[in-house]
Design a protein that fits this description.
The complex is a heterodimer of chains A (290) and B (281).
Chain A: H1 9-35, E1 38-39, E2 48-49, H2 53-60, H3 62-93, H4 100-112, H5 115-125, H6 131-138, H7 153-177, H8 182-191, H9 195-206, H10 208-223, H11 227-232, H12 244-253, H13 258-283, H14 285-288
Antiparallel strand pairs in A: 1-2
Chain B: H1 2-33, H2 56-64, H3 67-98, H4 104-116, H5 119-132, H6 141-149, H7 156-167, H8 172-179, H9 184-195, H10 197-213, H11 216-221, H12 230-240, H13 245-265, H14 267-271
Helix pairs in contact in B: 1-13, 2-13, 3-6, 3-7, 3-10, 7-10, 8-9, 12-13
The chains are: A mainly alpha (290), B mainly alpha (281).
Chain lengths: 290, 281
């Protein structure tokens, strides 16, 4: 094809987007590292260079290990559930049954509603004399301090994250299921395979890349949880539900210790970048045509 | 045949249960919001259908909280974010799909790199830059809105979506336009842009949803209540009405109505699965 555009044309088209990316992405990206070597706690306007002190402080802080442990709980509880349960629902919905659209709308609803409203709704369910404790009492249990008991708080918050994510991943799985050749299912039916064997031998192997994709996406989102915690527990009680992003927020905007918070941000950055690299180069190559 | 019916019955039972669990938190919130002061909202066993039915909590919270203001603020922020995303992504996607130039590969990977870094990890410098550029609500309302919009005005997702859309257009379209005497900008705006409308619609819808639900960033940059967006305003209900759950519930439901209408009107974009992975997780 002949070249119908001037030498400068491509750069002019890219310029507006790149200006914003430079100002609000690339500069902040490098500045995050710079901030983490500085001390802001004395004066926010005149930071001093303190080398690795923030990292030393961070790695000596027991809260840091609590936060990392909480994030780890988030990953090992939320990610497997979000990778498997929505797939199960998608398989059910993918049958030729009535009411599919209604099911999809209802199950997707939590995805669309503001996380703040969702967190408030759950806070109300979790109230001391709330409806969930009534259900617990029906089964003869003692009422649970869903958000006030340090042993429970993190799990109560994780439930909200899972509840809000199920519909999203279900739709991703549904799209993937459409690409499974129908003939394979028909062959299974002729062989008289039951529901379980059919999906274990045909569905799962075919959509393995999507399962891997959902696993990495949900892991990345679990690393970034903030609003649920902010609205429901503020990281408490006793730091039992504090996660990385909440800790960054707290140290930066409540303690005004930007340097320390940035050291935490660098840790987050490195972990998420590893997950994302796996994601992009292993599962999303086609999307970006690499 | 009998086996088939019973198999589907199990599926229906599971799907109905999950659907109910998905909406139950809202049902319970609505139920609470419709209960008058004469009814104990902590009653055991809990009552779903209010006995002392009233709309007083809605009128009460409506009078004390400026929802219209929050709604307008959310509309301005989401509208501005969508508008800039459409323009900037289309502009940037075009040369990446259609032109050969020095630095194309680097530009491509630079944009791809932004996907790997979460906003939460770089938000502190973004905040400092926003302060330095005076994009905060204590300068003026306009600056406040720009401070909420600009950090999200362009995304790698949008640029790649538009690049993909331009790649799908046959090259003959441009050649014909050039022969007809169009310059490069006219090719872009008059010939190519109208052909990528479906992708622009997808980008608009998902940029809108993302911006509408954003909570972390506005709660960092906002200082004035008159600038609150809906999520920030809803969170603030907890402080305003401390333990008045009737009002908190009514306010949360009121704030959810606009996005609910939007979702139901646009549901096919969300649940068809064609745009998988478009919403940020």
């Amino acid at each position: 094809m002949f070249k119908y555009y001037g030498k400068r044309a491509p750069y002019l088209f890219l310029l507006p987007a790149f200006v914003l990316l430079v100002v609000f992405f690339f500069i902040p990206f490098f500045q995050t590292f710079i901030l983490s070597f500085q001390d802001y706690s004395q004066s926010i306007y005149h930071p001093t260079f303190i080398g690795l002190s923030n990292y030393v402080k961070l790695f000596q802080s027991p809260i840091f290990y609590k936060v990392m442990a909480n994030t780890f709980i988030y990953l090992i509880v939320a990610v497997p559930i979000l990778a498997i349960f929505p797939l199960f629902l998608a398989v059910l919905i993918n049958q030729k049954i009535k009411g599919v659209t209604l099911y999809k709308i209802l199950i997707y609803l939590p995805v669309i509603v503001s996380i703040v409203v969702a967190a408030i709704a759950f806070k109300w369910l979790y109230a001391d004399q709330g409806i969930l404790n009534y259900v617990v009492s029906l089964f003869g249990g003692k009422s649970i301090g869903w958000l006030t008991d340090p042993n429970w708080a993190i799990y109560s918050v994780i439930i909200v994250t899972i509840w809000k994510g199920i519909g999203y991943y279900m739709i991703i799985y549904l799209a993937a299921l459409m690409s499974v050749p129908k003939e394979l299912y028909e062959a299974c039916d002729i062989d008289g395979a039951n529901f379980l064997t059919k999906h274990l031998t045909v569905t799962i192997p075919h959509i393995m890349p999507t399962i891997a994709l959902v696993t990495t996406i949900s892991a990345i989102s679990a690393m970034k949880v903030f609003a649920e915690i902010y609205v429901m527990t503020k990281g408490g009680p006793l730091n039992s539900s504090k996660t990385i992003v909440y800790y960054i927020y707290e140290r930066a905007f409540e303690n005004l210790d930007l340097g320390f918070a940035s050291a935490m941000a660098v840790v987050l950055l490195i972990i998420v970048m590893v997950f994302s690299l796996i994601n992009i180069f292993c599962f999303e190559k086609n999307k970006y045509q690499l | 045949m009998k086996i088939k019916i019973s198999k589907h019955l199990t599926s229906h039972i599971i799907l109905i249960t999950v659907s109910l669990l998905s909406i139950f938190p809202f049902i319970w919130l609505i139920s609470t919001s419709l209960k008058g002061n004469a009814e104990n909202i902590f009653a055991y066993p809990p009552v779903i259908i209010p006995k002392d039915f009233t709309l007083a909590n809605y009128t009460g919270v409506w009078q004390k909280v400026d929802f219209i203001r929050y709604f307008i603020n959310s509309m301005i922020v989401a509208g501005g974010t969508v508008f800039l995303n459409l323009i900037l992504s289309a502009l940037a996607g075009y040369p990446l799909a259609r032109m050969e130039f020095k630095g194309k590969k680097i530009s491509f990977f630079a944009i791809l790199a932004t996907i790997m870094v979460p906003f939460q990890a770089i938000m502190l410098p973004v905040y400092l830059i926003t302060l330095k550029l005076h994009l905060t609500d204590n300068v003026s309302d306009f600056s406040g809105f720009m401070g909420m919009i600009l950090p999200f005005a362009v995304s790698a997702f949008g640029i790649f979506l538009m690049r993909q859309a331009f790649l799908g257009i046959p090259k003959e379209m441009e050649e014909a336009a050039i022969v007809d005497g169009c310059n490069v900008f006219q090719v872009f705006s008059k010939v190519l842009l109208p052909m990528v409308k479906p992708s622009l619609a997808v980008l608009a819808i998902f940029a809108f949803i993302g911006s509408w639900g954003e909570f972390l960033w506005p709660s960092i940059v906002l200082t004035k209540e008159s600038m609150y967006t809906l999520p920030v305003g809803v969170n603030n209900l907890q402080g305003m009405f401390s333990s008045n759950w009737r009002f908190i519930a009514a306010g949360s439901i009121l704030a959810t109505i606009p996005i609910l209408i939007f979702f139901l009107a646009m549901q096919r974009y969300f649940i068809s699965g064609e745009n998988e992975g478009a919403v940020k997780g």
